[in-house]
Amino acid sequence: MIRVESLNDLWQARESLDEPVAIVPTMGFLHEGHLSLVRAAKKRATSVVVSIFVNPTQFNQETDLEVYPRDVERDLALLENEGVDLVWIPTNEVMYPPGFQTWVEVGEIANPLEGEKRPGHFKGVATVVSKLFTAVQPQIAFFGQKDAQQVAVIKQMTRDLNFPIEIVAVPIARENDGLAMSSRNVNLNPEERDASVVLYQALQAAKIAYDGGERNGDALRLLMKEIISAQPLASIDYMSCADPSNLQELEVIASEALISLAIYIGKTRLIDNLILEK
Ligand code: AMP
Question: Per-residue pLDDT averaged across 91-109, rounded?
Fold first, then answer.
């Protein structure tokens, strides 16, 4: 496994890779969710590149960036074990050279949900992912369905900017009790960890209601709200039942819906989602 930091070293290493090349962008502190992306990438591509970069411009709160967990040596051991070909760990100076002033901003699809609650977040994401795409020149890129709006934003950007890259969304990897895996889960104390299962419980309750015939968006949002509100350590950032194609809230579900949640458990903000299908 080759490990590089500078752009020159990346370009040189990239030349040695057999195509098709896949990229798995990450912010490190890897868990099984990230590794499921790597495994999906290994199945589809001849060479797999993983980037590890805690992108400061997608954090809209300084404290969130400060407490973001990091362990590069552990990450490298995990990636080596998965048979990854190339790991790129750029510094802030590589990604944002002095005087940096060029941004990628995606339109309406980036506005609701995470975009509304985390102003500037998707501007940071779209900018850094387009820089990763330009530098690595992959044929396929893998993202987690855990960040459902991020997948939608990246697909839109890829179409709009004519990147010749296939975007693949990988299902959410979960702990045994249903909690979606996340690097942020280590910031939960034991009591908060127990409480955090409430996100999955709320989504499951909405799915059961939907499977039982409920098609009213408000009814599903209310059901999730009641379940979250019953957990004293949880506070709601948003709850959504939206059209997966444009992420606009639905009054009535005609065919499909993306139900998604952002919930604070103590100081830790967790997100999760589920697709309701016919
Ligand atoms: P992050 O390091 O949090 O930026 O995540 C890097 C990639 O891994 C993103 O595409 C995430 O959506 C994906 N990811 C994170 N957690 C999970 C999970 N539990 N299941 C599947 N993909 C995930």
Answer: 98
34 is annotated as an active-site residue: yes
Residue 169 pLDDT exceeds 90: yes
Span 197-226, average pLDDT: 98
CB environment 92-127: b (16+ within 10 A), e (fewer): eebbbeeeeeeebebeebbebbbbeebeebbbbbbb
Q: Which residues, in sequence order, are CB contacts of 235 under 8 Å at separation 6+?
A: 263, 264
Average pLDDT over residues 157-176: 98
Nearest residue (CA) to ligand 1, atom 18: 33
Question: 22 lies in a domain?
Answer: yes
Residues in contact with ligand 1 by the CB-under-6-Å rule are 26-27, 33-34, 36-37, 143-144, 146-147, 170, 172-173, 180-183
The model's pTM: 0.98
Which is the catalytic residue, given 23, 24, 30, 34?
34
Better-predicted residue by pLDDT, 132 or 60: 132
Q: Whose CA is nearest to atom 17 of ligand 1?
A: 33
Give a yes or no: residue 175 inside a domain: no
Nearest-CA residue for atom 10 of ligand 1: 143
Expressed in angstroms and rounded, the spacing between residue 55 Cα and the centre of ligand 1 is 14
The answer as to whether 177 is a domain residue is no
Q: What is the mean pLDDT of the chain?
A: 98
Q: Among the atoms of ligand 1, which is closest to the Cα of residue 172? A: 20
Report the pLDDT value the prediction gives residue 278, as an integer from 0 to 100: 84
Q: Do 71 and 161 reside in the same domain of the chain? A: yes
